[in-house]
């Protein structure tokens, strides 16, 4: 039986080694810069996130059972801490300058700030599942009902590593937010298509409408009022998705949400 601590140590070395490789790749000339750029955007970024998150506990869990899962998670956390310490050591000139962690430790307390950050890490499985749905579920809807395709890399990418002076602790958590924001925003964009295509009816709860209007602009700009009729709903669908409208749209953008940019491009061409 492989001891849990040995699995943790193996994972720690792997995490730190992969992180070191990511630092090295952009320095390998033009080819390295190209690979580095690819790894910062989906689908390359999906590979990087997988290597640092769900793959180690999954693979080691299959091989060694619960010890593999627990050991992998311990090694991942320790590997992240080792990388943060090393990155800050390598960028000592920024250590005593303005930093997010310094301000927040002073504002809410060091313990509260750090515990709260690790609590946000518990949301990681949720975002991974959302990303899987974006990759494996939504694309099926394009050939079936014509919901628009998306270049995932325009949403799911990271760039905060280029921000001058962002190091170690601040950098790793900012990259986490960078990735999460893109995944969430792409998921919201896809859901706009789903809602407007299948259910263009405004909510009866006014407070819910106010809360959702930012993520679902069609709510107040096209969806049928709750006191309307099913005839109104079908009329709205005909207006937004009928043959005269969709004829001018690209085949893989046939049924976008009402405010989708592709509709505006077609309107400009027709005007």
Reading the helices and strands in chain order gives HHHHHHHHHHHHHH
- How many structural domains are formed by the residues? 3
- As a whole number of angstroms, the C-alpha radius of gyration is 23 Å
Through-space gap between termini: 72 Å
**Which structural category do the helix and sheet elements fall into?**
mainly alpha
**Number of helical segments with 4 or more residues:** 14
Chain-averaged pLDDT: 94
What is the count of β-strands?
0
Q: Beta fraction of the residues? A: under 5%
Unreliable runs, pLDDT <50, ≥5 residues? none
| General shape | elongated
Helix percent band: 55-70%
Q: Which helices and strands appear, and what pairs or packs with what?
A:
Elements: H1 4-24, H2 29-39, H3 44-52, H4 55-64, H5 66-90, H6 100-108, H7 110-120, H8 124-136, H9 138-145, H10 168-198, H11 206-212, H12 230-241, H13 243-246, H14 261-270
Helix pairs in contact: 1-5, 4-5, 5-10, 6-7, 8-10
């Amino acid at each position: 039986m492989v001891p849990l601590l040995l699995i943790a140590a193996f994972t720690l070395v792997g995490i730190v080694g992969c992180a070191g490789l990511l630092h090295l790749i952009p320095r390998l000339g033009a080819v390295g810069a190209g690979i580095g750029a690819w790894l910062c955007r989906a689908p390359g970024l999906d590979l990087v996130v997988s290597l640092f998150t769900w793959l180690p506990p999954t693979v080691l869990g299959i091989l060694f059972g619960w010890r593999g899962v627990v050991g992998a998670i311990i090694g991942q956390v320790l590997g992240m801490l080792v990388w943060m310490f090393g990155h800050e050591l390598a960028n000592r000139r920024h250590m005593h300058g303005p930093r997010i962690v310094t301000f927040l430790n002073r504002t809410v307390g060091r313990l509260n700030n750090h515990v709260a950050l690790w609590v946000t890490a518990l949301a990681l499985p949720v975002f991974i599942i959302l990303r899987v749905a974006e990759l494996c579920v939504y694309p099926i809807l394009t050939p079936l009902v014509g919901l628009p395709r998306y270049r995932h890399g325009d949403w799911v990418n990271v760039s905060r590593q280029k921000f001058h002076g962002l190091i170690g602790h601040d950098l790793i958590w900012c990259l986490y937010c960078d990735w999460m924001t893109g995944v969430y925003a792409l998921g919201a964009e896809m859901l706009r298509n789903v809602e407007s295509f299948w259910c263009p009816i405004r909510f009866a709860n006014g407070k819910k409408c106010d809360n959702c209007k930012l993520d679902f602009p069609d709510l107040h700009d096209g969806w049928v009022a709750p006191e309307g009729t099913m005839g109104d709903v079908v009329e709205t669908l005909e207006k937004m998705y009928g043959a005269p409208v969709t004829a001018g749209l690209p085949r893989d953008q046939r049924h976008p949400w009402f405010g989708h940019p592709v509709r505006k491009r077609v309107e400009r061409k027709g005007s």
